[in-house]
Each structure stands twice: as structure tokens, then as C-alpha cells.
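Data card: per-record layout.
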Amino acid sequence: AVVPIDQDGSTILVGQYRLVPNRFTWEVPRGGGTRGRAPAEVARTELLEETGLTADNWLQVFRLWVSPGTTDEWAPGFVAWGLSQGEPHPEPEEEISLTRLPFAEAVGMAISGEIDDMGSVSLLLCVYARLLRGDLPNELLEALRR
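The structure for this 146-residue chain is written out next.
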């Protein structure tokens, strides 16, 4: 999962219909990778495929176990900035909508339950907590404080 942050403090959310809950959801760009593939590489690929964005700067902010009692799957979370826009290339079966909004608004959506994907909520709130503590690179702090 990755939270892309533009120079004005905006982020991009990915919207799509999810079969299991049978509804449309908003999430941060994210996807899965095979064992042995570097998590940062997976995050870069998903960000490019789903949004068309590339980033000059990446920071891994967590590595969380998905459900340590039932699986050995873990989910890393990244924040990316220094963005450049290109063309998205979603998987053929993905019908994706994108929305650009202030980071604070995305955090509000996570707090209100409008975003209810655990990975997205965790990542948005983790980046927000680090913003409040001033525990992010200066360039990123400046963008988020705009």
C-alpha cells in the first residue's frame, strides 16, 4: 500500500467495485506481490499501474502482519512524494476510478469509516500520526502542512 503525496499536500485514492463486500470502495493504491519480490518494487508497480504516478522519494512507514493467527502474510505501507504523472495501466479486470483530494480529507474519510479497508486506514492514520509528531522528511512535512 502506498499513500502518494503531491507537492500541494494532496493524495490520490483508488475507487473500485469489490466483489466480496459487493460494493464500491475507496482505498489507497495497493496490491500484492509474490514471495521474494521486494515490497518497494511491488508498491512502485501498483502506484504506476493504478494511478500513472511515479515518485522520486519513498519511505516505508510500517510492516504489519495481516492476521498473525491465521496467515504468514504481511503488508508493508509506504508514503511516496516527488510525484510525476503518467498514464495509468490497470489490470484488464480492474475498473478503477481516481480521486485527488487533500491528505487531511482522506484522513477524515478513514476516521469516519468512509474508507474502511484496514490497510488503507492503517496507512493513512500512520502517516498522519507521523505528521503530527514531525517524524517525516522535511520536504514531505512541508507538503503535508500546506
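Known properties of this structure: The longest strand covers residues 53-65. The first helix runs from residue 39 to 51.

See the next section for split statistics.
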